[in-house]
Design brief:
heterodimer, A: 311 residues, alpha+beta, 70% helix, B: 468 residues, Gyrase A, domain 2, 3 domains, 4-stranded antiparallel sheet
Chain lengths: 311, 468
């Protein structure tokens, strides 16, 4: 019952976290979109016989005069080059510049060149996917909870699940963007979107398990008051919530430390999302149900009073 | 009781068998289990993906599918000719919210990491078109006017390449050919090309033989254009513009240009490996070197194995006997998933492997739900058998609803996603489905098999959970 009693505190905490995350999203612009979304080229090369000086490489590439070219070191013997979207002759020009007309031996590890049309197409696709998932989940929850429409309608469960979901998505996004600004080279790429979509699934999954307990207790009429029912339901599912998140987190941590460079940021985003998702299903979603029920009761009471006075 | 134990034993043996088959198939590809190896995506085995856009502006909507299929067949034949193993050539219609859908051709070339080679391999596919004279009329005048105007504009001094490009793109009429209009006859209706020599001048010529459909079209075109020129376009430029003297019904056409024997022979070779029905332009290129992919795979597998081990240790430590059962169920789940990846087959990408590892976490959740419920029922004073039964029954609803919402997300992701997101969604979705079987049916069978009717303190400890 502790959580329900102090729900205002957790609402304020969640509100603050969300606000800070939104601020980070708004302040640290421009966001670092990956080439998949903006169109552009990413080239990763390895120099098996030793990497040439990066500063020199930067100057060579600057001489090509392409807009927004970035050069970075990767690993012990590699370099990552980002630039505009390239045609085949331009790609050859780039390779020849990096290898100093073939004097430096290099190995082309990865080359991605994405035209601007594909980039914008992908952006709208990602957005549509997220909106569709949200819509489908509200509908499903409203349907799955249709038998418990008292004291709050089953649509409220769906709505609250979405509030928790938005909360769970905004906070990792804010952290990711802030991290990208201060510490490391992170990009909003397809993997990031995949991570966000996974968090979306996990968040709802977790919220539903707690809601399900409330649904069961409401049906059994174990407790008379709604807030007591919700409070006990949280307590009954508490260990399960923590343990499930723990197992998922263990796997994600293994992925982070051992899973290679490509999935590192992906694992980090997931880890933050799963933690926030667990927090919100316990401390935000269910207390929000109680708050809405109380608000409804108050309004009904007022209307009833007004009716009385009117008579 | 013994019946349940027998079923559990069978399940265990089947699971072990599947695991053994998967392992044998990978370690000894020549054994009977080796027929279906894992299929890896380009990001793991290394290779090149090229995305082309087809210029279908001149193609009627009704002919679109046929044209794109012809295009795919031509490119596929060409890629196969060059001995690339298991290439994937597919068409895709990209619907953007604004404007016409664009037709794409996606070519995946496993093992090819030399982009220049890959691009030229496909780029050399000839584009063969037959065009007839544009009839006189307002349209022709308008196009001619646009060209005159553009020529004047381009003559100004101090224009950069970009500005010239902008002038050329400014008027759609400039994209039209003032003298010729396309016909339905193109490279996809070519049966074969061969080299011949002119009987009078001994100049080399290329003889084109059409398919049945092409012959009919060519007959119609020549019939309608007697005394007029019919232009043969190769790669967007007129290569030969003979004037039709009479209707040609035998389905043969000749290209006699200014070429020597070598040029003619090369053209014949190119045409015989397939000629494109429409022009294509390169939209995006992606290459992954084999070394990078291999590293991603080994590290992904390592992460998976370590992750599973940690989860198993946690389960056994916290849930004791049920934890051991859950670990066995998890092992069967993994064996089943790997077998499914081989049999369907699911193309494994880096993101796909991440999805699979994540689904392991979700598979464990179902067991955690069941065991926590069991513990509660035990606390209420029920005996072990009843607690087990009620634990499963009560946990089912929340497992169902939470997994259905995960499946909904996976399906939508698969629907919308690009190849990378698709790989992730597929392994996650299949994983959630299979885990509902393994975590519920398999765990229940095993638990009942080791379950007892007794209710002693020691037994209660082993079937309990937590720290005490």
């Amino acid at each position: 019952m502790f959580i329900i009693k102090h729900k205002t505190f957790f609402f304020i905490l969640s509100g603050l976290l969300t606000a800070v995350a939104l601020l980070s999203v708004a302040v640290y612009r421009p966001w670092n979109f990956g080439v998949e979304f903006t169109g552009g080229t990413i080239l990763e090369v390895g120099f098996p016989e030793g990497r040439p000086d990066i500063e020199e490489l930067k100057q060579t590439l600057a001489a090509l005069g392409w807009h927004g070219t970035v050069v970075q070191e990767t690993g012990t013997d590699g370099a990552l080059i980002r630039t505009k979207s390239l045609s085949e002759p331009e790609r050859e020009q780039l390779i020849s510049a990096v290898s100093q007309e073939g004097r430096v031996h290099l190995e082309e590890r990865r080359f991605n060149s994405i035209g601007p049309t594909i980039g914008s197409e992908l952006r709208s696709k990602a957005l549509w996917a997220i909106l569709c998932v949200i819509l489908a989940i509200v509908l499903y929850i409203a349907f799955a909870f249709r038998h418990v429409s008292h004291p709050i309608s089953s649509w409220v469960y769906g709505f609250v699940a979405i509030v928790a979901l938005v909360h769970d998505v905004i906070i990792p996004t804010g952290v990711y963007i802030a991290l990208g600004h201060y510490f490391m080279d992170v990009q909003i790429d397809v993997l990031f979107v995949t991570a966000i979509l996974t968090i979306l699934g996990f968040s709802v999954h977790d919220t539903i398990v707690v809601f399900d307990r409330t649904r069961e207790n409401l049906k059994l009429r174990t407790w008379k008051e709604f807030d007591v029912t919700v409070g006990h339901s949280i307590e009954q599912t508490f260990v399960r919530s923590i343990n499930t998140s723990l197992t998922v987190l263990l796997v994600i941590l293994a992925l982070y430390f051992l899973g290679g460079e490509t999935t590192k940021n992906f694992a980090l985003t997931l880890a933050i999302g799963v933690t926030i998702g667990t927090y919100s299903s316990i401390f935000l979603a269910s207390p929000l149900l109680v708050a809405i029920a109380e608000w409804q009761a108050k309004r009904e009471h007022k209307i009833a009073l007004a009716h009385k006075r009117g008579k | 009781m013994w019946r349940k134990r027998f079923i559990a034993l069978v399940l265990l043996l089947v699971g072990a068998g599947i695991g053994f088959a998967v392992y044998q198939g990978e370690e000894h590809p020549e054994s009977i289990f080796g027929g279906k190896p894992f299929k890896y995506g380009l990001d793991i085995q290394g290779g090149t993906e090229l995305v082309y856009e087809a210029d279908t502006s001149k193609i009627a909507a009704a002919d679109m599918r046929q044209t794109m299929e012809a295009l795919r067949d031509v490119i596929e034949r060409r890629v196969n000719l060059f001995g690339v193993s298991e290439p994937v050539v597919q068409t895709e219609q990209a619907n953007s919210l604004s404007g016409k859908p664009s037709q794409r051709l996606i070519v995946e070339l496993p093992g090819v990491t030399d982009i220049a080679q890959a691009v030229s391999l496909i780029g050399q596919t000839p584009l063969l078109e037959f065009k007839i004279e544009r009839p006189d009329g307002p349209e022709k005048t308008a196009i001619a006017d646009a060209f005159t105007k553009a020529q004047v504009a381009l003559k100004q001094e101090g224009l950069t390449d970009q500005m010239k490009q902008a002038i050329i793109m400014s008027d759609p009429l400039l994209q039209e050919d003032p003298n010729f209009i396309p016909t339905e006859l193109n490279g996809s209706k070519l049966a074969k090309a061969s080299l011949t020599f002119d009987s009078r001048t001994n100049e080399p010529k290329v003889l084109l033989t059409f398919t049945d459909e092409g012959r009919q079209l060519f007959a119609d075109i020549t019939k309608a254009n007697i005394g007029k020129p019919v232009a043969i376009y190769l790669d967007g430029a007129a290569i030969s513009t003979p004037t039709v003297r009479e209707a040609i019904l035998d389905g043969n056409a000749e290209i006699s240009g200014d070429f020597n024997v070598q040029d003619a022979q090369a053209l014949v070779g190119r045409l015989n490996s397939g000629a494109l029905p429409v022009a294509i332009s390169l939209l995006s290129t992606q290459t992954v070197g084999a070394s990078l992919g291999e590293k991603a795979l080994t590290s992904g597998v390592k992460a998976g194995v370590v992750g599973v081990l940690i989860v198993a240790i946690f389960l056994i430590f916290w849930y004791r006997i049920p934890g051991v059962v859950a670990t066995v169920a998890l092992a069967i789940y993994i064996a089943l998933m790997l077998a499914i990846f081989k049999l369907i087959p699911v193309t494994l990408t880096g993101a796909g492997i991440a999805g699979f590892i994540l689904s392991i976490g979700m598979a464990v959740d179902a067991n955690v739900l069941i065991f926590e419920r069991m513990k509660e029922e035990l606390k209420k004073g029920k005996d072990i058998a009843d607690a087990m039964h009620d634990g499963f029954a009560r946990a089912w609803l929340s497992i169902r609803d939470s997994n259905i919402s995960s499946i909904i997300s996976a399906v939508i992701l698969f629907w919308f996603g690009t190849s990378l997101v698709k790989g992730f969604a597929l392994t996650l979705g299949v994983g959630v489905l299979i885990s509902m079987f393994s975590a519920i049916t398999v765990t229940r069978t095993f638990l009942y098999a080791v379950g007892t009717h007794g209710n002693g303190k020691v037994k209660r400890f082993f079937f309990g959970s937590g720290l005490r």
